[in-house]
Amino acid sequence: MTEPGASPEDPWVKASPVDDEDSDYHQEAYKESYKDRRRRAHTQAEQKRRDAIKRGYDDLQTIVPTCQQQDFSIGSQKLSKAIVLQKTIDYIQFLHKEKKKQEEEVSTLRKDVTALKIMKVNYEQIVKAHQDNPHEGEDQVSDQVKFNVFQGIMDSLFQSFNASISVASFQELSACVFSWIEEHCKPQTLREIVIGVLHQLKNQLY
DNA sequence: CCCACAGACATAAGTCTATT
DNA sequence: AATAGACTTATGTCTGTGGG
Predict the structure, then answer these.
(1) Contacts of A17 (CB under 8 A, 6+ apart)
(2) Spatial separation of the C-alpha atoms in residues A153 and A190, rounded to whole Å
(3) What integer pLDDT is reported at residue A117 of this predicted model?
(4) A3, closest nucleotide (Cα–C1')
(5) CA A131 – CA A124 distance, rounded (Å)
(6) Tell me, in Å, how far CA of A77 is from C1' of B16?
(7) Which residues in range 29-48 of chain A are in contact with strand B, contact meaning CB within 7 A of any of its atoms?
């Protein structure tokens, strides 16, 4: 739609007052020209603003993957602005959820790394002790059996630890750890675990 | 303080397009 | 062809800002 009588080439054509001696008319003509000039500039500015908005929607449609899915039965139909906005909102919510999931995964993996590092240090100490005293206790059981005993005990402890511990906050973690130690690390309980593991291994071996 | 200006928003009217 | 819905365009109004 074009403005009636508007000429895009000469937007400021009415900007100067007309050459007339009549001051009232002169004034009126000047006012009118200012009004026209103002209207023209405003129309241009408004066009610019609408272009910017349109560009924004186009960019959204390009960036948001769910806006790019096309129904091939219809062809590459342009989505309405309302749909582009809704799909953008949905996509941002999806990204937020994904980010949260990945952060949780990273946290879990960090804990695994810490545990593995501790275990590595412990094993290195054991290996070093063996190297320092290679002949101590020739009648000792094999490394495999020792590992099985260790593994059985640690598995049992880990199961009770995993069932008792929540890591939502440090306070909660700390409270859970203390309660777990009280409940599952009593001498009597540990004794039962060790005996149970040894029995189990004995049955497997013989 | 007044005026000019720019930008944002609202609205009416026109245009385009898919559907019935 | 009629119609509905989405979109565009021009214009009016309001508000904030900066210069004289």
Answers:
(1) A26, A29, A30, A33
(2) 9
(3) 93
(4) C10
(5) 11
(6) 14
(7) 34, 38, 41-42, 45-46, 48
